[in-house]
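User:
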Amino acid sequence: MNLGDLIPITLFICITYAIKVVVDARVRRQMVTVGGSEELVRSVLQSEELRRRHSSLHWGVVLVALGIGFALIQAFGWQDLTPGLVAVLAVATGLGNLVFYAIARKLT
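Assistant: Predicted structure:
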């Protein structure tokens, strides 16, 4: 793969993320300026913070599970791409999501 092909993809991702950040900031600003109740603003900000924490936890658990999957592949010395190798990664990802679900239920 040519690294020059990644430039337009990266540019698209950056522009999309910038638009999302601007829209989120405008929504928060309008909520404050329109005169939304203090409780509403506080609850929205708290729910966003909780969502961010859960997102970080989710990706952390999934990436750790994938790391364990890759470690197992390395430990068994598998070199070729086979359905079994893909299954190990799929199972690791699924287990990571299930562990996140269990942790998130205990936190809320």
